[in-house]
Design goal:
Blueprint: E1 30-33, E2 36-39, E3 45-49, E4 52-53, H1 63-71, H2 78-81, H3 85-94, H4 98-101, E5 105-109, H5 115-122, E6 126-131, H6 135-143, E7 149-153, E8 166-171, H7 181-188, E9 192-203, H8 213-220, H9 225-247, H10 253-257, H11 273-288, H12 298-307, E10 311-318, E11 321-327
Parallel strand pairs: 5-6, 5-8, 6-7, 8-9
Antiparallel strand pairs: 1-2, 2-3, 3-4, 9-11, 10-11
């Protein structure tokens, strides 16, 4: 997908907050030199791509996510849909309030198009957000208006940030799609202060393995994103009425609807037909495209939390997800 040729409105190409970033090689401070961030110690250089610092190659295993979020930049933003779906999900799952977040530093790991970035920024928190994919450009276009947003492109395994420097850690819809889920989970906590609060979700095992998309993924994850998207865009709207109809069957409806590999979002009570269609296409593609999908069992999440000696953590089931939250 063609990306903007210049920084979106609100994104300063000079990166005034670059002093908060660190060199991946030697961990020294960075400074802006024309279209790059340059290390003050070892002279390593990192490109500034359309106003966004980039610390990974432009092409990587998450290209499908970059494609989908640039196609659906606005679809799930509350400010676009006229709902509070994203805000409600953040606040309900985390147990945080806007008052608790205001003025605090928040690290958002894996921003996608920025549906949750918008919610976090609106609280008045100082939000540092990143994604490994080109989805950061969609996020910048939508949320670059927030002066309290720091946005860059990087790998969750190697972040250009000082350790133990954030008050809150937030990560939704990410860790099951990374190459090593345990490593991903544990790596994030390097950047959370002792006493800092966290909220992370992950596809729940074993229930996620029972979804019919698992029969299709061995094939679909190998199809180039643009080609797969065109297939989904054509077929999902045709399958959607069938899935919705099956879901209305008394008692067995939800189970029957799961036999149709298309996202319905019946539980969200979306009203507008175009919105329902767009969400269905987006999330059906999201099911089928990722190179990695590794749901996790509750017991494993609990073990990882104990390995890190996290305090007061809880693991809760939210539909097909586990949400783990607590204090470092």
């Amino acid at each position: 997908m063609t990306l903007p040729k210049q920084a979106p409105p609100g994104i300063d190409p000079q990166i005034p907050w670059c002093s908060e970033l660190r060199c991946l090689r030697c961990r020294a401070s960075l400074r802006t030199v024309q279209s790059e961030l340059v290390c003050e110690t070892c002279a390593a250089a990192y490109p500034i791509d359309c106003g966004i610092p980039r610390f990974v190659p432009a092409d990587n295993y998450a290209d499908g996510f970059g494609y989908q979020w640039n196609r659906h930049r606005l679809t799930q933003l509350d400010s676009h849909s006229g709902t509070t779906i994203s805000r409600d999900r953040v606040m309900k799952a985390s147990g945080w309030t806007a008052e608790q977040l205001h003025g605090k530093s928040v690290l958002e790991c894996g921003s996608g198009a920025g549906r949750f970035t918008e919610v976090l920024c609106e609280t008045g928190a100082i939000v540092t957000s990143f994604d490994i994919s080109s989805a950061v450009h969609a996020n910048a276009a939508s949320n670059g208006r927030f002066p309290n947003l720091r946005l860059f492109q990087a790998s969750i395994y190697d972040l250009p940030l000082p350790e133990e420097s954030f008050d809150f850690l937030f990560c939704f819809g990410v860790i099951q799609h990374t190459p090593d889920v345990e490593r991903t989970f544990k790596a994030m906590f390097r950047y959370l202060r002792p006493g800092g609060r966290f909220c992370i979700d992950v596809y729940a095992a074993p229930i996620s393995y029972l979804h019919p998309r698992q029969l299709l993924r061995p094939l679909t994850k190998r199809i180039p994103p643009a080609r797969l998207y065109s297939i989904v865009d054509e077929t999902a709207p045709k399958l959607l009425p069938l899935a919705m109809g099956l879901s209305d069957v008394p008692v067995a409806g939800p189970c029957l609807a799961r036999l149709v590999p298309v996202a319905t979002h019946r539980h969200l009570n979306l009203r507008d037909k175009r919105t329902i269609r767009d969400w269905s296409v987006l999330d059906t593609f999201d099911w089928l495209a990722p190179r990695y999908e590794r749901p996790q069992p509750r017991r494993r999440l609990q073990r990882w939390a104990m390995d890190l000696r996290l305090r007061s953590f809880r693991v809760e089931r939210h539909r097909g997800l586990y949400v783990i939250r607590g204090v470092k």
